[in-house]
Amino acid sequence: MASRLMARSRKVAIVGVSLSDCGRVDDATPYALHAQAARRALADAGLDRSVVDGFASAGTGVLAPVEVAEYLGLRPTWVDSTSVGGSTWEVMAGHAADAIAAGHANAVLLAYGSTARADIRAGRRTGDLAFGARGPLQFEVPYGHTLIAKYAMAARRHMLEHSTTIEQLAEVAVQARANAALNPEAMFRDPITVDDVLSGPMIADPFTKLHCCLRSDGGAAVLLAAEEYVADCRTAPVWVLGTGEHLSHSAMSEWPDFTVSPAAVSGRLAFERAGVRPAEIDFAEIYDAFTYMTLVTLEDLGFCAKGEGGAFVEKGRLRVEGGELPVNTDGGGLSAQHPGMRGLFLLVEAVRQLRGEGGDRQVRGADGRLPRLGVASGTGGWFCSSGTVVLGRG
C-alpha cells in the first residue's frame, strides 16, 4: 500500500495545544470551553485567529462545526465534522494533515468542549448507558447490553483466551493513577493499589469502579499548520509523521474477534506511513475509558504480542517514573479527566511531552534527553473505530 505521506507536498506540524478548565466546571457551557481551549491553543502557538482557515469539531449537535465556528468567530474554507466516538480527534488530525499537505488548508483548528459531568449533576441529562436503541443497537439494548457491558464482555473474552488476570487489568488503573499524581491538572491524584481496584463496587463484571474512567467537564484544542508557518510560532513544532484510521463494527455480533481492537489496523497504517517501528516509540497516549482498552491497544499497536498484554502491563512498565514505555502520562481518562470524547486530550499531552513541557511527569530517556517519538491512539464506541497518530520532534 502506498504511503499517504508520499503524496504530500508540505510537511505538517502541530504548533499549538491547550486544555480549557477541566475537572469540575459547573459555571461554563460547552461552547465556552471550546472557546477557552481555542484561545489558549492560538496563544500557545503565537498565531492570530485570522490564520485559521480550517476547522474541525464534533459533539455539540448536528451542526457541530458550523455552530462552534460561528461562536469562535471563524469562517473556515475547510471543515470536518467526522464523528466516530473517542477516536474522532485522531481521525480528524489525519484528515487535517492531508488537507494541509495538499494545499486545501493552511492552518486547521481542532476544538472540543463538554460539560458531561456538570449536566448530569444539574439534571440536564442522564448517563447514556447504551448510546440509544436505534439501528443495529435495537437488537442488543433490550438485553441490558450497555456500553460498559460491551467492554466488560470483551475483557472477559481476553481473560478466557489469554489467561489475562483481573490483577493485571487493575495494574493499568494503578499506574495511570501514579502518573496522575505527577500532574497538577489531574482530577484524581491520590495513590491507589491493586486491592483498592479489586475491592471497589462492581459496575460490569469484571470491572469495578476504578476499572472505569471518571466523568469530568473540560475541553481541548489543537492547531495544525503547514511548515511555512512554523517560523512564526512561539513553540517548537511537533511533526505529524503518519496517521491511520479504521472502522470495525457497530453490532457486537459483527465483531470478528473480541480480543482484537481496530487499532491493529490504524496503528499498522500509521507506523508504516511514518516509517517507524513500535520499538522506536518513547511513550504512548492511549484511550482508556476502561483498563482493558489500554491493555489490548498496547497489543494491537505492536508493543507486545497478542495475548501478552497482561504480562506487559506488570512491573510498572506504564509509569512515567521508571517505566519502559510510559503510557497515558497525564493520568489518562482513568485519573486525569474524561469529558466524553477524550481523543483530543491524547494529542495535547503527546505534544506537551515532545516539547518537554510535562513538568514532574516529563518523560526522559536514560540519558536525560527528551522523547523523540510518541504515538496517540484513540478508540471510539465499543472498539468500533480507531485513529492513530505518530508524532515526532525535530
Short description:
With 394 residues, this protein is of the alpha/beta class. Helix content is 31%, strand content 17%.
Which tags fit this structure?
single chain; 394 residues; nine-stranded mixed beta sheet; two-stranded antiparallel sheet; 11 strands; 31% helix; disordered N terminus
Number of strands: 11
Largest sheet at a glance? 9 strands, mixed
The residue ranges in which pLDDT falls below 50 over 5 or more consecutive positions are: 1-7
- Mean pLDDT across every amino acid position: 93
Q: What is the 3D shape?
A: globular
Q: Span from first to last CA?
A: 27 Å
Order of SSEs, N→C?
A: EHEHEHEHHHHEEEEHEHHHHEE
Helical fraction: 25-40%
Spatial sequence of strands, sheet with the most strands:
3-2-4-7-1-8-11-10-9
Structural class: alpha/beta
Name the beta content range: 15-25%
Q: How many helix segments?
A: 12
Rounded Rg: 19 Å
What does this entry look like structurally?
This protein has 394 residues and is α/β, with parallel strands linked by helices. The protein is globular. The longest helix has 16 residues. It contains twelve helices and eleven strands. Strands 3-2-4-7-1-8-11-10-9 form a nine-stranded mixed sheet, sandwiched between helices. A two-stranded antiparallel sheet has the order 5-6. The protein starts with 11 loop residues before the first strand and ends with a strand.
Topology (elements, then pairings):
Elements: E1 12-19, H1 30-45, E2 54-56, H2 64-72, E3 78-80, H3 88-102, E4 107-114, H4 116-121, H5 147-162, H6 166-180, H7 194-198, E5 202-204, E6 207-208, E7 218-226, E8 238-247, H8 263-274, E9 283-286, H9 291-300, H10 309-312, H11 332-335, H12 343-354, E10 373-380, E11 385-393
Helix pairs in contact: 6-9
